[in-house]
Amino acid sequence: MTDPELIPLLQRVADALERLAPASVALNDLDAADAFVWHAESSWCEPVPAVSRVPIELLRGVDRVRDILLSNTERFAAGLPANNVLLWGARGTGKSALVKATHAAVNAAKPGALALIEIHREDIPTLPRLLTLLRASKRRCVLFCDDLSFDQNDASYKSLKAVLEGGIEGRPGNVVLYATSNRRHLMARDMIENERSTAINPSEAVEEKVSLSDRFGLWLGFHNVDQDTYQSIIAGYVRHYGLDIGAEQLRAEANEWAITRGSRSGRVAWQFIQDLAGRLGKPLG
Fold first, then answer.
1. What is the 3-state secondary structure (H, E, C) of 31-87?
2. Contact (Cβ atoms closer than 8 angstroms) between residue 98 and residue 218
3. What is the 8-class DSSP label of residue 115?
């Protein structure tokens, strides 16, 4: 074969070898950003350059739990002991928004103090692998699992229990876990009742299930807001984003929006603001 004939053949061989080669391992640089998403399949913490969140001062009706979470997070950022936190309660009441806003507030006061690492619910079984990675880092990390709950025949809660407090290595000193859930005990009531009805020792079976939530040192409860708080949230957003609308019209439209949704919450308020800003031709940024 002549040289010109060899070149395409060698190129095809090189392409085939490249396809057969294992994928390169992504490097984990916890100094690359202040927020990350854990990808279990590649054991990679993907940097998130811009986090979707609202300023902590715009979160209304959660003053007490805000202060508790902020204090716990500030102590952790300062290298002091801090608790894992379970934020539980009604949907749309600001649980995940408060976690992200608290992280931003602490880092604003002390830049780079904390890394926020989101782990998805389905990746909880890989938590020990993530903690091994974080244990070798000097950076203090808040693990964040949004909408954490467990259903019938889901045994992954056992690995979470061991990681939180019961494992032989224990939780690394530079890591705390913040989780949000609609369920106080992270499990559906019918799941707990089923354990009670089918177990040889009902009380021990139920204790096994609900003891997971006991591994969180702080329980912060969130509840639907009243009319005045809902209107206060709306007014705060309007002032912050400079939306031009009369007070009476704003109040009437906000009430109508809540009625059509069948609830009043921080999430409903934010959805109304997005609709209002769109109608007024005002970007939210």
1. CCCCEEEEEHHHCEEEECCCCCCCCHHHCCCCHHHHHHHHHHHHHHHCCCCCCCEEE
2. no
3. E
3-state secondary structure 129-181: HHHHHHHCCCCEEEEEECCCCECCCCCCHHHHHHHHHHCCCCCCCCEEEEEEE
Please tell me the number of Cα atoms within 13 Å of 250 on its side-chain side. Answer: 19
One-letter identity of residue 116: L
Retrieve residue 269's tokens. Answer: 């308020």
Helix (H) or strand (E) segment spanning residue 118:
strand 114-118
For the full predicted model, state whether its pTM sits above 0.85: no
Segment holding 6, helix H or strand E: helix 3-20
pLDDT in tens, 91-128: 888 999 999 999 999 999 999 999 999 999 889 889 88
Q: Name the nearest CA neighbour of 70 among 36, 44, 107, 120.
A: 107
CA distances, 34 to each of 46, 112, 118, 127 (Å): 11, 6, 11, 20
